[in-house]
Design goal:
The chain is α/β, with parallel strands linked by helices and 177 residues long. It is 54% helix and 12% strand. It has helices at residues 15-26, 33-41, 45-66, 86-95, 105-112, 126-144, 156-170, and strands at 5-8, 29-32, 74-77, 97-102, 147-150. It is globular and about 45 Å long.
Length: 177
Amino acid sequence: MNRNIVLIGFMGSGKSSIGKLVAKRMGFQFIDTDAIVAGRAGLEIPAIFARFGEERFREMETAAIESLRHLTRCVIATGGGAVLREKNRALLRETGFVVCLTVSEEVIFERVSRNSRRPLLQTENPRETVAKMLATRRALYEETAHLMLDTTAFPRDRAADAVIVAAKRAFSWQGAE
């Protein structure tokens, strides 16, 4: 396992905000796979979905994850659906220590409903869509993660601390390195 921290979890679970904090505190680089995909495509994620569809987006996402395998000392935030492909699940575990950030369905919906740019939630009943997607993905998150971390009741600082402690243990680091 490379000495990277890979954050997975449903949209709105805090992967980016907690990931940036963890990276800063550990002196790691922060990388967002969605940003890689958007940069390579020259389009924002909603435009990629609109123009090419979800399947093409998932192909681009896999290519982005593959490109990170050789890196070390990074905190990598993935898109919420990165675990949908078996290949990605294996790549993520190979890339680093995988932490799945979870929060309650209520908190997720409250967070994602503030953002109208989420392509998979452009449905008649976004609340129902969130529930169905969570039900589908929950087992995939559990299969992929080395650690499941429920941050529903944690402020970002405490969640970042918990990720750091677990990662140092996984890397067999006694103190800060």
